[in-house]
Amino acid sequence: MGSLDFELKEIERKIEEINKFMKSTGIDLSGEIDTLKKRKDAIQATILSESGPWNRVLIARHKNRPNYKDYVEGMLEDFMELHGDRNYKDDGAIVGGIGYFNGIPVTFISHAKGKDTQENILRNFGMPHPEGYRKALRLMKQAEKFKRPVICLIDTPGAYCGIGAEERGQGEAIARNLLEMSDLKTPIISVVIGEGGSGGALALGVADRVLMLENSIYSVISPEGCASILLKDSSRADEAAKYLKLTAKDLLELKVIDDIINEPAGGAHNDIKMTVDNVKEMISKHLKEIMAKDINELVRDRYNKIRCIGVYSE
């Protein structure tokens, strides 16, 4: 453990001791606690800035990181969830519906992870089946019909790769979403709020604006999968994370995403309200810009944006 890690543990211990003392004596020492918390935030920010991509992976996967429920409650009014793909069943790994965002009627679609084991089982740990992507597409086409902007939140390790999912056309469902979203005649904003894994993330990621929380990740494969395939050793995931260029900073430089959303010191789980407010503010900014465009211009710009990702060199 480094000196900063040791100091962080000591500060957390002191805060706990002061809280117990205040509770037992009634003496107000909130000023001392505020000072310690400020120092704690500064240390966490320093540790994060000095750490590699693997630390971002761990923060993106934190069990207390805000999920779709936090964003629905903090960003939308009168949200009504809609269910089913009208073909097979309702997939709990994707939540979608309609509501008001700053008074604007929108369609909201999000990968859904739980914060405990029971809910994660219900949500299949955020790994959608093909019917989840077909539900998402159904809601997008409905949004297009009624001229509602679409807000997508991305947080998945990847699409579910079970036998049943493959039998029901997992690859086709993802490919269909990519095709339809590229030409959807309504504004689309996608935000990576945690993990953005492979095609399972990209199926909600073809948008006019793609945003990322600063400690989220977005990659063609997980570091563990990359290490297992290319390095022949899954324990070298921390090394593979460096090669994948999966951080928000990397992807902004590569022009895969359009903006980075700030998080509280140490990660989004340390202040959920601040995180949700930051996401709402950034969506509001970009939504205002793209809603001002003519719809044909918007779709043309979206197409050109996708075509310009990546560089070919001989």
From TrEMBL:
Q: Where in the cell is it found?
A: Cytoplasm
- Record keyword Lipid metabolism present: yes
Pathways involved: Lipid metabolism; malonyl-CoA biosynthesis; malonyl-CoA from acetyl-CoA: step 1/1
Question: What GO MF terms are annotated?
Answer: acetyl-CoA carboxylase activity; ATP binding; carboxyl- or carbamoyltransferase activity
Keywords annotated in UniProt? ATP-binding, Cytoplasm, Fatty acid biosynthesis, Fatty acid metabolism, Lipid biosynthesis, Lipid metabolism, Nucleotide-binding, Transferase
Q: Tell me the Gene Ontology biological-process terms attached to this UniProt entry.
A: fatty acid biosynthetic process; malonyl-CoA biosynthetic process
Query: Which reaction does this enzyme catalyse, per its entry?
Result: N(6)-carboxybiotinyl-L-lysyl-[protein] + acetyl-CoA = N(6)-biotinyl-L-lysyl-[protein] + malonyl-CoA
Start and end residues of each CoA carboxyltransferase C-terminal domain: 35-289
- EC number(s) from the headed UniProt entry: 2.1.3.15
- Please give the family membership noted in the entry: Belongs to the AccA family.
The record's HAMAP family line, in alphabetical order, gives: AcetylCoA_CT_alpha
Role of this protein: Component of the acetyl coenzyme A carboxylase (ACC) complex. First, biotin carboxylase catalyzes the carboxylation of biotin on its carrier protein (BCCP) and then the CO(2) group is transferred by the carboxyltransferase to acetyl-CoA to form malonyl-CoA.
Name of the protein: Acetyl-coenzyme A carboxylase carboxyl transferase subunit alpha
Q: Which organism is it from?
A: Fervidicella metallireducens AeB
The organism's lineage? Bacteria, Bacillati, Bacillota, Clostridia, Eubacteriales
